[in-house]
Write a structure and sequence with these properties.
The complex is a heterodimer. By secondary structure, chain A is an alpha/beta fold. Chain A has one domain. Chain A contains seven helices and six strands, in the order H-E-E-E-E-H-H-H-H-E-H-E-H. A five-stranded mixed beta sheet of chain A has the order 1-6-5-3-4, with helices on one face. The longest helix of chain A is centred in the N-terminal third of the chain and has 17 residues. By secondary structure, chain B is an alpha/beta fold. Among the domains of chain B are: 112 residues, Nucleotidyltransferase, domain 5; 39 residues, no CATH class. Chain B has a five-stranded mixed beta sheet, with helices on both faces. The longest helix of chain B is centred in the N-terminal third of the chain and has 20 residues. Chains A and B meet through helix 1, strand 1, strand 2, strand 5 and helix 6 of A and helix 2, strand 1, helix 4 and helix 6 of B.
């Protein structure tokens, strides 16, 4: 029998289906990835063993920075149609006698980083075009008993969105007095259950260690 | 210049007939692999974790404060410079001149955790036993039921310490989270964050060697 000659094939594999698949996966991941906005203050969260994940929606985050500034961030609710941020700022405006235009309210709704702007400067802040200038206004939300704007933000956020959960995201080096003040405000406004944002650090204690 | 271009054009046309219309996609695949890996990792790992805490109601003046046995009380005072001070029991008004000594420790596994485990041995063992049984499959429960079963174990326990956590003004947020985390690690059933008293501030200042800052007014 004559030898079967295999046809000489070029060692090329058709990669088109692979590329197609990868494109689909990549597009999906890019679309689902949430862009994280640049935060006004760097926060180095402490570690804990808790494995509970941060919820996606219905959270308000109180950010306590190292230099004792307080920032607040809350989301638009589980659906963007709900426009929680829009409504909260409108309420804040009426409380402090500031008239916000719909354009300003919409701009506030779209702004997703934490906010540390005193309410009186909010109009100026929302008029800024260049994001680099924004940090100059982030002086922290006033929390003194005479001008407790943080309490008002908490009050109105909870009025607009009753399902909101409070989270505290503090830097490891934030002094305790400011933490205590924020706890006190939360307690005064009947927020008794809240979450501390931490990074995971697994620690286990074994039986032998206990028994010895 | 013009000549060269013409030549190239002609050559290209000739070759185009011979060449199969294949493009080498390997670099593109490489790049996509990288991007996919990047997006997968960032989306999966970026979620921070949360630790839940519950504060009691702001105390109403007409309700008496809950009373506990003094010997079960363990006071943890968070001091400055990442130090922790502890003392057992309570301080009576007549002892203000003779305050109990503070034990200095730290946030490491051999420091405050060892001490808490010593005090909480019975309960910690029960919880660890239970978790072990769940892990090895002797008890089959959903994660939520495991949590509530542990909560039940903690509720019926009456041997562990009642831990009062008090933060000195020089301590930081990281210290507080650390100590709350230790409470979870050691399975302490009863713990609460309370305001520091003036005599504890004084005790910390003596222990840490800080000159006392205007305490005369608060002593009354």
């Amino acid at each position: 029998m004559p030898k079967i000659k295999l046809p000489t094939k070029s060692p090329h594999i058709d990669m088109t289906p692979m590329v197609d698949l990868f494109s689909v996966v990549l597009t999906f991941l890019m679309l689902t990835a949430t862009m994280r906005p640049t935060e006004p203050a760097p926060i180095d969260t402490p570690a804990s063993i808790s494995e509970k994940k941060t919820p996606d929606a219905n959270i308000m985050t109180l950010v306590l920075s190292k230099d004792d500034r307080v920032f607040l961030n809350f989301d638009n609710g589980p659906d963007t149609i709900l426009k929680f941020r829009y409504k909260v700022l409108a309420l804040m405006g009426s409380r402090y006698n500031i008239e916000f235009t719909p354009a300003e309210l919409t701009k506030f709704e779209k702004y997703s980083a934490s906010l540390g702007v005193p309410i009186l400067k909010m109009k100026e802040f929302l008029a800024i075009k260049d994001p680099k200038q924004m940090s100059a206004f982030q002086a922290g939300i006033p929390i003194d008993s005479t001008d407790n704007q943080l309490a008002m933000w908490i009050l109105f956020t909870r009025q607009v969105n009753p399902n909101v959960q409070a989270c505290i995201k503090g830097d490891t080096k934030t002094g305790y007095p400011i933490v205590k003040k924020v706890f006190k405000i939360l307690q005064d406004y009947k927020v008794k259950q809240f979450n501390l944002v931490t990074s995971l650090e697994a620690t286990k204690i074994n039986l032998a260690e206990i028994q010895k | 210049m013009a000549e060269i271009i013409q030549e190239e054009k002609g050559g290209g046309k000739k070759k185009a007939k011979k060449h199969a219309p294949h493009i080498d996609m390997t670099p593109m695949v490489d790049l996509m692999c990288l991007l996919i890996t990047f997006f997968m990792l960032t989306s999966a790992l970026s979620k921070p974790k949360i630790m839940q805490i519950i504060l009691p109601d702001a105390q109403k003046s007409n309700e008496p404060a809950p009373r506990f046995l003094g010997s079960r009380t363990l006071n943890i005072v968070l001091g400055p410079d990442n130090k922790v001070y502890t003392y057992s029991g309570t301080v009576k008004p007549e002892e203000y001149n003779n305050l109990p000594p503070l034990t200095e420790t730290n946030y490491s596994a051999t420091g405050v955790r060892q001490m808490l485990l010593d005090r909480n041995r019975t309960l910690a063992k029960k919880i660890a036993d239970f978790k072990d049984q769940v892990l090895t499959g002797k008890i089959v429960l959903s994660p939520d039921s495991v949590q509530s079963a542990i909560a039940k174990l903690k509720k019926v326990d009456d041997t562990g310490p009642l831990v009062l956590i008090k933060a000195y003004k020089g301590s930081n947020y990281g210290n507080m989270v650390d100590i709350l985390d230790e409470m979870n690690i050691c399975g302490i059933a009863l713990y609460m964050l309370v305001d520091i008293t003036w005599y504890e501030e004084k005790m910390v200042e003596t222990a840490a060697g800080i000159t006392s800052t205007a305490k005369a007014a608060s002593t009354k």
